[in-house]
Predict the structure of Penicillin-binding protein.
Amino acid sequence: MALFERFWKRSARDDSRVGEGGYYALYDSQRPLDPDERTSSYRPAGSTDFSRWDAGLSQLDSSAALVPENRGPFWKRAFWLSRRKRWWAVRIIAALILLFIALFAWLAITAPLSKSLEPIAAPQVTLLASDGTPIARSGAMVAEPVKIADLPPHVIQPFLAIEDRRFYSHWGVDPRGIARAAWTGRGGGSTITQQLAKFTFLTPEQSLSRKAREAMIAFWLEGWLTKDEILERYLSNAYFGDNQYGLRAASLHYFYRNPENLKPEQAAMLAGLLQAPSRYNPTEHYDRAKARMDLVVGAMVDVGYMSQAEADALPAPRLDVRTRNDLPTGTYFADWALPLAREDMERGYQRQVVQTTLDAQLQALANRVVSRAGLGDAQVGLVAMRPTGEVVAMVGGKSYADSPFNRVTQARRQPGSTFKLFVYLAALEAGWDPEDTISNQPIEQGSYRPKNSRERYSDTITLEDAFATSSNVASVRLFNEVGSENVIRMARSLGVSSPLPEGDPSLALGSSSMTLLELTSAYAGVAANQYPVRPYAFPQEEESWWEWLFSSEDSASERVHSDMEQMLRAAINRGTGGAAELPIANFGKTGTTQNNRDALFVGYAGDLVVGVWVGNDDNSSLGGVTGGGLPARIWKDFMRGALDLPAPKSKASPDPQGPVEPLDIDIEQGEEIPLGEDGTSLRFEEDGVVLSQDGVPVELRVTEEGIALEEIDPR
């Protein structure tokens, strides 16, 4: 301001400095000199007095600093009208708009809108055995989505009154509703749109970040869907307790009627369940459900959906529950098969019924065999399959109710000497024969020095005898001769996918862990001589010629396969697996890990391949249990019943005075058993036993009444 005063006000005071044209010279160099200034200090024209100019600028700065900036209070409009503030405000608003657009794009990618059309819980799946017998049912009860246009007002109104009164007027988040809920305790703080966003896209965690994401998704849903579409998706997916998801499933379950036909009191009770479905479940806590229904009806009166007189006239709804799940929700087999079934299912509301490969009779037999095995505190795993990989029975433990952990598919344990199958098979492919010999002397060199059971050694031993007697030192020597890479390659070709350390000689004795299902599938590959065998729980479609042409399956030569079966048969008939011997061709191998932590028997006979494992979950020792003991007996017991083999003949008791053991022999009425070459026979009838002989006119009859001779007609 001082500078302008100098230029303009000064002109009024000093007319002598006005130029010829009537203007005041801007620069001193342009101002004519006064006579007084023509002194000895005279400066030529064109020179500048810089000190005077600097003094003027300093005076200007001082004057400007003394003038306060008139901003005013920040809530006044004038405060925000400055150019600099407008510059920042425009850019902040633009950044917020860009961030909002980016969030919408992110939601479109990470939370697709179609997800709100899917049920929030997997729909119910019923598994059937191969003969059509239901064996397990798992999953949520869901039904077809509802349509708002088809629902009467008295069905929709209870949900709006108790959950979101301003649903049709807000934009996804309702501050007034939150304040009302906090003040009155009625209704929820979250809108219906927020609840749909929460159970469709988010986890139930309680955090501010989750609430922020919930609000963003709610705005997004409001922008893309109509109000009726949001309400339809909400009612079709909400949880109503008792494993019922969606209004249709809940109304059918609790009142056995479709939601379009619900009565006002029934709709009010269902609306009340949403806050705490388990707490207000009317099948278990009807009094709580009725009290909650009264609260819903009161909210409807407050909103104006009904009068107080109409509310007082509403009766208590009567439940009509007709559907009950009388099937187990899980079994060892079902827990393994169900995830595989869902992989091939389309996401939707339709309940599914899937047939499996499980044989109901063989499964029942497996359960009986395990229950009478005398396991003590030990656990057990048993799996039976066809050589093609079709699993027909599975027992993952002594009791599913006590422990659903599946020792067939989940437990990874050392296979012990059952792993020797891969060592000897690799040796046969390398040109060895079962009659070839190998040293059976103790290994005295190297860091790994395994020992034979009971310290039994010999100078040499044939491969067949080494396999049958499960010689550890001979197997390790053979492993080193063949090479670990060839043994691992053989295991991989038979379908073993578990880690197998290369160069570790302890691998020959089964030091690397795997599942019983994986091991049994490898033996199935040997039984079929076509591998790898993939275990499956559902009937497989017949392979097309094109798939067969490009199949990656492999097989051993006829010589190799025959020699391997010769050794597997020797292991049962005259080796460590003698307790599993059957009256038909049988093949198998025992396995016992260090300190008797695991005991196994895996083998095949007829059209069944069965693996049995016995052990403790804490990996402690089984004491004196070996693979040739309890597992082999369980295997034989199951095989004998599964293949419908005759019971073993009774042997003389070492103690004639001991108790008489009942024989497990099924003899049909009228069956005749020959006793000699002279025609003597024993015939079983309903009332007793008859002894007769060809050419003798009498029979000896033994009944409960005693012994009697009866004459017979010689004709």
